[in-house]
């Protein structure tokens, strides 16, 4: 299988409710990845290079270590067909309300760039913000502004 199809295929298992899926582990009450992509795996704490963030760095941003400690890297980004914009933010940087609005702005620009009116329906737009920790300050600001924060999937934040 070529790398493009392989990377595009990895988008689907993130929120699938059945295994193989990261979200299926959450539905099973797990807080870590299991040893196998199944309910009640033999090991309930098995790192196996399976973190979603690693996939974003390697599979989408295309940051491939060529020497220990990232002393030498190759960068070959790839966006799957279902993804139209990706922005990297250093984990040490804060995730602010301005980052949220920039993300919404990207989605609005994408919708407006269709070749005909409403070629890209608004209800087909999705904004995903992935972070290794919950952006509590950003959420606090959003709530003060009257925006509703919905916990769409238990255990995510």
Describe it for me?
- The protein is built from five helices and two strands; from the N terminus they run H-H-H-E-E-H-H.
- The chain has helices at residues 3-9, 22-27, 52-60, 97-112, 136-144; strands at 63-65, 73-75.
- A two-stranded antiparallel ribbon has the order 1-2.
Tell how many strands the DSSP assignment holds. 2
Q: Work out the strand percent.
A: under 5%
Q: Would you tell me the overall average pLDDT?
A: 77
Give the radius of gyration: 18 Å
Main pleated-sheet profile: 2 strands, antiparallel
Q: Ranges with pLDDT <50 over ≥5 residues?
A: 1-10
Brief rundown of the structure:
Helices cover 30% and strands 4% of the residues. The protein contains 5 helices and 2 strands; from the N terminus they run αααββαα. The chain has helices at 3-9, 22-27, 52-60, 97-112, 136-144; strands at residues 63-65, 73-75.
What does the secondary structure layout of this molecule look like, with pairings?
Elements: H1 3-9, H2 22-27, H3 52-60, E1 63-65, E2 73-75, H4 97-112, H5 136-144
Antiparallel strand pairs: 1-2
Essential attributes:
disordered N terminus; 157 residues; globular; two-stranded antiparallel sheet
